[in-house]
């Protein structure tokens, strides 16, 4: 009850207060007043104030908090004066427009006008926005019916009809609110101690709605439509695909109108648009199932949930789980040379292709049916709570032994049978030759690190390692303490990513005759010195570490 109700006063603003308390609980996941003793509760409501919503939910959007707090103002004169006014402001918030609950400066108004999107930051808040609109609309209809009933009381027939409608709308609103509370409770059922995602909550809700609202088709439709709108809004904020190859004139424009660079390793979201000129070439990997698509030059393509749209703009589709490989010709290079010690002239006896990326969690799961990675939903999920499920598919698989990698390769070769290639781990020599970008001269093989330009300095802007201990003249930087998605850092001249840092990479060879197996490249937890192209590591093949992964090499079947 609102404070004025205890003085025998009540009007439409009292209903606004009641709805505000409901919205408060949706956002805070707790009542505004938790006192159980009736007398103390009355005192709290009449003389006290609920806790500040921002303190309970720091991730709640500011405008949503403003709306809720204005609705539960103690002074009725400072609340929304009608339920309709609250509904209008709530809709403005959902549309990303300035709300009326407080003054908005010209700069903020302009920014909001451009964005035209709600910012959904927490799982409960996202679901609240998805579902509370349906519940709010129902409740506002109930309030309106009640007001209309009072006006029409002199006309008995109309009054009775209004009363029946009011009761129906009240029951509808109550059922919607009860459903919301039950949906929020799933965030407390995660026995692993992490948070469920907004999309998990929405998926749970979407499955339950048809059965639980079978007798209320109007409300069922409102809730399903609300979920659909927010699901699409969320999808626009997580990557749907990654650009693998791009050349010629290609323009990439996001759904909100911003222009992004259409270059390899760029993540693209739902409804982003690619405009290809006559010489434009683009190839994407879609994260839903890791299939690849190449688009027709001269076309405009919109990124959909399952591929490019329209369908006739797709020139080529590959349903395999592998991504991009770079070809290196046979030749000689100077292994182990780093400017300080002389390298050993080493022969690569046959052409080979090496993967541009480390094997990812998504690829591993597609082939093996599980995910052993520490930095995943199955591992220490608290470290990746802010990473979408789609982007996690691009994190390198880790916590795998050399034997695990061999089992993956065995299954991959069976899966890829008939495509003309044999897959395996790189030898140490192949790995280093590729890391150096296929360099062959002593001078070109004399650097420690290889990107677009070889260098003897390494900072955490260039690779994922312990940036507090950089190499050479590079400044100190960040230490992330975990893996990052493949392609997040600059590649070398061959387009190979993460040849320095992120995870140590298993090689085929025994180390100095065994029994350990060679590792190269360094990982996220080591200093810059351990990421040098010439540095060699060794570990027993049965060991699994959270900073150990691998990349693939392939050769034509005829060479086997």
Structural features, described:
With 560 residues, this protein is α+β, with helices and mostly antiparallel strands. Helices cover 34% and strands 15% of the residues. It is built from 14 helices and 20 strands. It has a 5-stranded antiparallel sheet with strand order 4-1-6-7-10, with no helix packed on it. Helix 7 runs antiparallel to helix 10.
Multimerization state: single chain
What's the average pLDDT? 84
Structural class: alpha+beta
Shape: elongated
Q: Compute the gyration radius: what is it?
A: 30 Å
The tally of helices reads 14
Q: List unreliable stretches of 5+ residues.
A: 103-126, 186-195
Helix content: 25-40%
Provide the spatial order of strands within the biggest beta sheet. 4-1-6-7-10
Major β-sheet profile: 5 strands, antiparallel
Number of strands: 20
Instruction: Give the amount of beta strand, in percent.
Output: 15-25%
């Amino acid at each position: 009850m609102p404070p004025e109700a205890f003085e025998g006063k009540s009007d439409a603003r009292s209903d606004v207060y009641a709805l505000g308390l409901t919205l408060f609980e949706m956002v805070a996941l707790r009542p505004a007043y938790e006192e159980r003793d009736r007398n103390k509760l009355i005192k709290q409501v009449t003389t006290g104030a609920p806790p500040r919503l921002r303190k309970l939910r720091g991730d709640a959007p500011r405008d949503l908090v403003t709306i809720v707090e204005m609705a539960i103002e103690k002074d009725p004169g400072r609340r929304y004066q009608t339920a309709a006014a609250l509904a209008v402001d709530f809709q403005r918030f959902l549309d990303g427009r300035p709300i009326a609950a407080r003054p908005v400066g010209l700069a903020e108004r302009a920014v909001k006008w451009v964005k035209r999107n709600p910012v959904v930051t927490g799982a409960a808040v996202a679901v609240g926005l998805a579902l509370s609109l349906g519940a709010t609309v129902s409740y506002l209809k109930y309030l309106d019916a009640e007001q209309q009933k009072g006006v029409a009381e002199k006309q008995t027939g109309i009054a009775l009809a209004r009363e029946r409608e009011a009761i129906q709308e009240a029951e509808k609103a109550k059922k919607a609110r009860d459903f919301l509370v039950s949906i929020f409770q799933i965030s407390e059922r995660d026995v692993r101690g992490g948070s469920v995602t907004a999309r998990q909550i929405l998926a749970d809700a979407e499955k339950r709605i048809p059965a639980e609202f079978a007798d209320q088709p109007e409300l069922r439709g409102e809730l399903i439509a609300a979920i659909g709108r927010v699901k699409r809004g969320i999808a626009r904020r997580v990557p749907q695909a990654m650009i693998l190859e791009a050349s010629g004139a290609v323009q990439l424009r996001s759904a909100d109108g911003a222009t992004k660079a259409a270059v390899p390793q760029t993540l693209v979201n739902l409804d982003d648009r690619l405009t290809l000129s006559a010489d434009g070439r683009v190839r994407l990997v879609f994260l839903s199932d890791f299939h690849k698509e190449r688009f027709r030059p001269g076309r405009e393509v919109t990124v959909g949930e399952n591929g490019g749209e329209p369908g006739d703009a797709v020139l080529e589709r590959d349903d395999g789980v592998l991504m991009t490989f770079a070809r290196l010709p046979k030749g000689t290079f100077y292994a182990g040379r780093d400017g300080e010690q002389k390298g050993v002239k080493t022969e690569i006896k046959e052409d080979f292709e090496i993967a541009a990326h480390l094997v990812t969690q998504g690829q591993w799961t597609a082939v093996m049916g599980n995910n052993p990675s520490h930095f995943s939903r199955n591992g220490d999920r608290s470290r990746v709570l802010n990473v979408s499920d789609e982007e996690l598919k691009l994190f390198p698989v880790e916590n795998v032994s050399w034997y695990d990698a061999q089992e993956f390769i065995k299954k991959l070769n069976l899966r890829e049978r008939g495509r003309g290639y044999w897959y395996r781990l790189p030898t140490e020599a192949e790995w280093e030759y590729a890391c150096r970008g296929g360099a062959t001269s002593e001078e070109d093989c004399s650097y420690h690190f290889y990107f677009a330009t070889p260098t003897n300095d390494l900072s955490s802007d260039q690779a994922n390692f312990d940036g507090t201990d950089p190499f050479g003249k590079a400044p100190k930087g960040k230490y992330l303490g975990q893996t990052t998605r493949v392609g997040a850092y600059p590649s070398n001249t061959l387009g190979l990513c993460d040849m320095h840092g992120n995870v140590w990479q298993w090689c085929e060879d025994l180390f100095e005759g065994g029994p350990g197996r060679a590792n190269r490249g360094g990982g996220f937890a080591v200093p810059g010195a351990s990421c040098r192209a010439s540095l060699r590591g060794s570990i027993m093949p049965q060991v699994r570490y959270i900073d150990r992964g691998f990349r693939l090499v392939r050769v034509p079947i005829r060479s086997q």
